[in-house]
Amino acid sequence: MEFKIEFSGHENIRSNHQKTIEITKESHLTPQGDCIIGVNATSACSDLPVELKEKLKDSNSKVTFSINVGDFEFTVSGKGHSELVLTHAEDIVIRKSDFVCPRTLSVKCDNASDSLPREMVKLLQNPETKGTFTITVD
Q1: What are the C-alpha distances in Å from 100 to residues 80, 83, 103, 128?
Q2: Per-residue pLDDT averaged across 89-99, rounded?
Q3: How many CB atoms lie within 10 A of CB 23?
Q4: I need a labelling partner for 32 at 20 to 30 A (CA). Which of 22, 51, 72, 125 fits?
């Protein structure tokens, strides 16, 4: 199953967090939001289709995220988790750890925001830049 979320860049995107990647429906971003790679997202955890949520709540699910910005594509692999609640109305966070909260979409991911190519981050620092966050669950 595949689900696409569109998002925009923001001048305060730093993308240097070592454990998480986040996209948010919020339009405002402070420099402290160092895991955020996109704002004005078209969906948050609470907006995901029920079928996708059920697959994400399976600890055996393999989850792949493709982040596309301009000519760049960045891929992250993670896992589902039986304790995911997927109820946050603004944010989606993917994590290297197995910490679960309403914003968590996937755990045990192999990359975090500090791994994004710096050329991609530079593009994301332009509010005019558009990106796509694609969730694929096997």
Answers
A1: 11, 7, 8, 32
A2: 98
A3: 29
A4: 72
Give the ranges where the chain is alpha helix by DSSP (H): 50-56, 118-124
The DSSP string of 74-85 is EEEEEE--TT--
Q: Tell me the two tokens of residue 122.
A: 């530079």
pTM of the predicted protein model: 0.96
Instruction: Classify residue 60 by burial, with Cβ atoms within 10 Å: 0-12, 13-18, 19+.
Output: exposed
What's the domain range around 117?
A: 2-137
Mean pLDDT, residues 48-56? 98
> Residue 120 sits in a domain of what CATH number?
2.60.120.630
Name the nearest CA neighbour of 94 among 45, 40, 31.
45
Structural domains counted in the chain: 1
